[in-house]
Each structure stands twice: as C-alpha cells, then as structure tokens.
C-alpha cells in the first residue's frame, strides 16, 4: 500500500509503519526543514531523532 500524506507547514503528524515499509520525506516546495522523530512501537526507549542526532553526534549519518 502506498499513500501520500501532506503535512501542513509548522505542524506534524504521527503514523505507524509496518516492518519492511519505507518512509520517504519530500519537500515539494523546497523551503521547509523536516524533523523526524521515530520510535520502536514495541520498545519506546528505542528512538531516533534527527535533531538530537545532529546535536549530539554532529552528523546526521547513523552508525551502529
């Protein structure tokens, strides 16, 4: 199943992805910054935050 969800500027949304699904973030106007906060539904202590990753690791590229 493929769906496009448009998120208004200065707002957010939440949804679940099933294992194997892919999330693609596109800025059709080329002017917005997107922050991503993702949790493992089975263990909410497993989390990724694009903003915090950049703040703490000084890079957005993830490693193990």
List keywords for this structure.
64 residues, alpha+beta, two-stranded antiparallel sheet
- Class based on secondary structure composition and strand pairing: alpha+beta
Low-confidence stretches at least 5 residues in length (pLDDT < 50)?
Answer: none
Characterize the overall form. Answer: globular
Placed side by side, the strands forming the largest sheet appear as: 1-2
The quaternary state of the protein chains shown equals single chain
How many angstroms does the end-to-end distance come to? 30 Å
- Helix content bin: 10-25%
Task: Describe the protein's topology.
Blueprint lengths: L36 E4 L2 E7 H8 L7
Antiparallel strand pairs: 1-2
Task: Describe the 3D structure.
By secondary structure, this protein is of the alpha+beta class. It has a domain of 32 residues. The chain contains 1 helix and 2 strands. It has a two-stranded antiparallel ribbon with strand order 1-2. The longest helix is centred in the C-terminal third of the chain and has 8 residues. The chain is globular, with a radius of gyration of 13 Å.
Give a short overview:
This protein has about 60 residues and is α+β, with helices and mostly antiparallel strands. Helices cover about 10% and strands about 15% of the residues.
